[in-house]
Amino acid sequence: MNMKHFIAVGENIHCTRTVRSGGGKTIQLDSGGEAVKFKKQGKEKALPLPENWGDFSPAYGTGKIKHTSLAAYLSVNSDSKEICDIAEDYLCYLADTQIAGGAKYLDINTDEYTANAGKNTEIMSYLAGFYSERYEIPLSIDSSNPAILRAGLEKCRKNIKPPMINSVSLERIKAANLIKEFDAEAVITAAGREDLPVDLEGRIKNLRELTGILDEKGVPREKMHIDPLCFPVGTNPENGKSFLEAVSRLKQDFPDSHCSGGLSNISFGMPNRKLLNMVFIHLFVDAGGDGGLVDTAATPLEMIEKLDTDSESFRLARDVLTGQDQFGMAYISAHREGKLQV
Known about the structure:
Layout: E1 7-14, E2 18-20, E3 26-28, E4 34-40, E5 43-48, H1 53-56, E6 64-66, H2 67-77, H3 81-100, E7 105-109, H4 117-134, E8 139-142, H5 146-154, E9 164-168, H6 176-181, E10 185-189, H7 200-216, E11 224-227, H8 239-253, E12 258-259, H9 273-287, E13 291-294, H10 301-305, H11 312-321, H12 329-336
Parallel strand pairs: 1-7, 1-13, 7-8, 8-9, 9-10, 10-11, 11-12
Antiparallel strand pairs: 2-6, 3-4, 4-5
Helix pairs in contact: 2-3, 4-5, 8-9, 9-11
């Protein structure tokens, strides 16, 4: 399988992302306090938590460190140049690991930086400017708030490939006006005005209506990255199969558009998510998909290319994802027995 032309949107620069306090990705500092550890150019570094981090980020009280939010916060608010430099290094580390894994866009989301939409808009503007100044790779601006989308798009460089909007749907129709204004690519989802359809016809109906609206606005079909909505196989064993069937149908109904999706959604609640995600991307491409939101640091495209499709691990994961292993009983048993290999 050749993943060279797969349009991977590296999804890990999100203010929702967390690491566990006291877990394997943190250390205790000699001076007291906790820090998130990372490597930059082979050197061990530590992103420290400020003393008041629990006040700013209530998730810390539940043992979760929002590490992207932390780096953004320190970059903007720290009085120490040393800490600002470390925070900027961490932001670059997030981008570098996505790019190394094959990302063609960097997806940025600040919706959960704080509960204050104005602050979230400001931090989106900062992050989009930060990455646009330092990288040639275009950005995917991700938000449910049109004002935040605009703030990010306005900071995207004009002398590289146009940015992407993530996302536009019938429930977020105002975002459609930004596509032409910024000459952007756009993720177009099957979400309805009040529902998230799981059946094939519901998805197609919403997408036909939405693409019709975009056609009237003069948005070229080739700028549309159509997402039929991916739901966890752990909540319904048919979700993987129905998504792949929708992908095959989309390639018939929308031949000039890209087919995309939030592919890592499929593995929520399941063990060995990396294996499931890689096998699912493989099946997705076989069905006609050519891009999607992927954490390419965790699932590099090169590893997907090298999957052994004859292995027991691939077969077990495929059976879960296509509904042949109802509720994943064989897959989970194999995981508990240590038989699953990536």
